[in-house]
Amino acid sequence: MEKALYSLLNTLAPDKVYALRARQGAVAPFIVFQGTNIDEWRSINGPSGIAQSTMQIDCYDREYYDAKALAEQVRNLIDGFSDTVTFEGVATRFGGISHQSGFDVLDETDDPPLFRSSASYLITYDQ
Predict the structure, then answer these.
(1) Which terminus of the chain has a lower count of CB atoms within 10 Å, N or C?
(2) Among 21-35, 55-69, 98-112, where is mean pLDDT lowest?
């Protein structure tokens, strides 16, 4: 699912989407995503093949309102999304993505300080 999510987010910030942390020297704006919780659904007979993940998506930029604007673009793209995404030959069916919550913070990076607009999304998908 992470690769399919990467593919979606990459349409907004080509080659500026990272899992867990941005690469050294990444130039803003960029997006970082990470899973904060993964639940696999089970049926009485075993695994159902469906899972839900809470993903945190952080949008970084040098100006506060620019980080907020990128976060809004992410929300417009994936909130309510349900479709199949194919990345590197692997198809992932998203049952649904829904925005859950968000917050903003100033990251005290060395130079320059970066503004971060974070949001949590609940993602239901086929494993």
Answers:
(1) C
(2) 98-112
Nearest to 57 by CA among 30, 34, 40, 81: 34
The dihedral built from the CA positions of residue 97, 103, 108 and 112, taken in this order, carries a sign that is positive
Radius of gyration of the chain (CA): 15
Coil/strand/helix, residue 72: helix
Angstrom distances, CA of residue 119 to CA of 34, 40, 108 = 11, 22, 19
The region, left, alpha or beta by phi > 0 then psi within -120 to 50, assigned to residue 25 is left
Q: Helix 64-78 crosses helix 2-10 at what angle (to 10 degrees)? A: 120
Opening angle at CA 90, ends 10 and 96, nearest 5: 65
Residue at 94: amino acid letter: F
